[in-house]
């Protein structure tokens, strides 16, 4: 079983730090741990991002909703996931999604102010944060460049590519055929044929609630 030090050193914003640095971090930072049961709300949509949060054990479901269309994208994330650190600064600091616990889940968190102090303490923390922000800043541009042909798969790939992370282990697009066909600018018959073809190819699994993406990388 991993020690607390090893667990923290594996987190994406702590990559490359040593045990001495982690020891200093724990000594100087008021780190909190919160436990949740299955279905509990970890983060509410629109909640102000004032804490840096990490999934330490268990897993979470992140729910993205489209305001203009009744479509939801759900991604399931395992330990190590950072939750909304890109919302700590900038013009919009409210979380753009819901986060729900899946099973018993533990979250580690500390304040934005303490994180700023941490960034100033060692360049490696700052480089990790820059890489984290850059990945999210570049993702929309790459998605638009890659998936601009207007087809069903391109339209849905835009959603998956922009809203979800490569490390997510399960991804669902939850919507009615009516909502999906309207979003994809097609008719329900064409959508139904596309879904059958994609399911036959083993890329997706279709359910009455929507579409499960079996492999994010393969779908994209």
Provide keyphrases for this structure.
220 residues; nine-stranded antiparallel beta sheet; single chain; alpha+beta; elongated
- Shape label: elongated
Q: What's the helix count? A: 8
Structural class: alpha+beta
Task: Report the biggest beta sheet as strand number plus sense, adding barrel if it closes.
Answer: 9 strands, antiparallel
Tell me the β content: 25-35%
Terminal-residue CA separation: 35 Å
Quaternary structure classification? single chain
User: Count the strands?
Assistant: 9
Secondary structure: helix percent:
25-40%
Q: Output mean pLDDT.
A: 93
H-E order: HHEEEEEEHHHEHHEEH
Rg value: 19 Å
What does this structure look like?
The chain has 220 residues and is of the alpha+beta class. It has eight helices and nine strands. It has helices spanning 4-9, 19-28, 112-121, 123-146, 152-163, 177-183, 188-200, 216-219, and strands spanning 32-36, 41-43, 51-65, 72-77, 82-83, 98-111, 170-174, 204-207, 210-213. Strands 1, 2, 3, 4, 5, 6, 7, 8 and 9 form a nine-stranded antiparallel beta sheet that branches. Strand 3 (51-65) and strand 4 form a beta hairpin.
């Amino acid at each position: 079983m991993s020690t607390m030090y090893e667990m923290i050193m594996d987190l994406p914003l702590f990559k490359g730090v040593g045990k001495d640095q982690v020891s200093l971090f724990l000594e100087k930072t008021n780190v909190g741990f919160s436990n949740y049961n299955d279905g509990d709300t970890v983060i509410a949509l629109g909640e102000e991002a004032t804490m840096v949060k990490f999934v330490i054990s268990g897993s979470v479901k992140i729910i993205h909703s489209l305001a203009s269309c009744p479509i939801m994208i759900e991604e399931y994330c395992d330990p190590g996931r950072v939750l909304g650190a890109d919302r700590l600064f900038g013009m919009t600091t409210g979380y753009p999604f819901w986060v729900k616990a899946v099973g018993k889940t533990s979250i580690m968190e500390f304040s934005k102010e303490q994180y700023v102090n941490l960034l100033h303490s060692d360049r490696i923390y700052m480089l990790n944060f820059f890489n984290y922000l850059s990945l999210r800043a570049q993702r929309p541009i790459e998605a638009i460049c890659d998936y601009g042909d207007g087809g069903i798969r391109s339209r849905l790939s835009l959603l998956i590519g922009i809203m979800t992370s490569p490390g997510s282990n399960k991804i669902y697009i939850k919507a009615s055929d009516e909502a999906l066909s309207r979003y994809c600018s097609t008719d329900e018959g064409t959508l139904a044929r596309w879904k059958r073809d994609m399911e036959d190819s083993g890329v997706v699994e279709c359910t009455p609630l929507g579409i499960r993406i079996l492999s994010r990388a393969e779908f994209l």
